[in-house]
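Subject: for your reference before the review

Hello V.,

The reviewers asked for a structural picture of the protein, and I figured it would be easier to keep everything in one thread rather than splitting it across files. Below is the amino acid sequence we used in the manuscript, unchanged from the supplementary table.
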Amino acid sequence: MRVTLMMVASLDRPAGRRYFPIARALARRGHQVRVLALHPDLASCPRRRFTQDGVEVWYVGQMHARKAGSVPGRFGPLGLLRVLAGSTLGMIWGVICSPSDVYHLGKPQPVNGVAALLAVRLLRRRPFYVDCDDDEVRGNRLPAAWQRAVFGFWQWLLPRLAAGATVNTRHLAAEMARAGVAPVALVPNGVDLDRFLAPPAPQLDAMRAALGLTGGPVVAYAGSLALQNHPVDLLIDAFAQVAAAMPAAALLIIGGGEDLPLLQERVARAGLRDRVYFTGQVHYQAVPAYLALADLSVDPVRDDPVARARSPLKLIESMALGVPVVTGDVGDRAELLAGGAAGALVRPGDARALAEAIIGLLGDAPRRQALAAAGRERASAYGWEQLADTWATVYIRGCGRSELSHKKA
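And here is what came back from the structure prediction:
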């Protein structure tokens, strides 16, 4: 098959860490795969067309926010409209230049949605598929009512017009079922088991020394610093209790985001400036090295639609490294952690419960070792190669085996 994946982010964003591994796995199976993507800082993008791991990648427009450092910049209302218009035209042109058997939208959003309706349905007269991996309205920072209305409209419309959908959680699968969307393939987030590996011990020792992480246990968070959908403030509140009980403990916060300054202020107000370390934005290929410094990692969540719709990459990646995880019992997290056998589950949104779980694990090396071993074994079932096979079933069920066989021939 010829497959075109229409992303609204870049390869190194969390969404890209879902879609590109699937694209790569499909290419390994002999399919011709092209990714149309948006770049976080298009003006400085050195390569707008290239081939990586057998996948053609075209950057066709600018993302809705400029992300050139640890704190992204927002466009004003008129600037945002210009960006959206330019990126939509770029996506349409990308589709026109990409004759394919399958067009699959990575997220139901306006830019790729308009391109799907105008270029895929009207010009190419082909069906399209859509991947829903988030609550697009609640999970994005959309301050204006018109922005929420626009994102909500496309999130509602596109799955209903699609030939089929992929989702990453049972919560979203149920939403699709209620909307009458079929077929639907459940494809949780996964991990590249061959690449997500800890560096050698001497390199880790050098990193610890450079960061000042010597002499005490390390708790890590790896992800976006955007309080709209990642309540890192909950973790900081919990860590204040951990620090009071375990004075040598340190918190390593890996990543950047629009709320980095607010979180740094919160840490200072809590008197934790010498106990909490912010790396700022790091390339996703460096994340395994930073995570491997930790004795455990934390995915702080509240019980809300955003958390229920999420299949957190940070959990499965930490498990693959053998770093035990602590998170709230929301959505599919209990299933991912085998009911608590492969990680610690606590009440969501409860800083005290989170702190107690962290303190308990840091003081119990045998349990950490048991969770690490169970986590590695559990992560082996979430390799992207296996998940890509599930992803491709939606094409067979949506188009019919005979048509796919004809196209492949």
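For the response letter, the relevant points are probably these. Confidence is low (pLDDT under 50) at residues 401-409. The longest helix spans residues 77-96.

Happy to draft the paragraph if you're swamped.

O.
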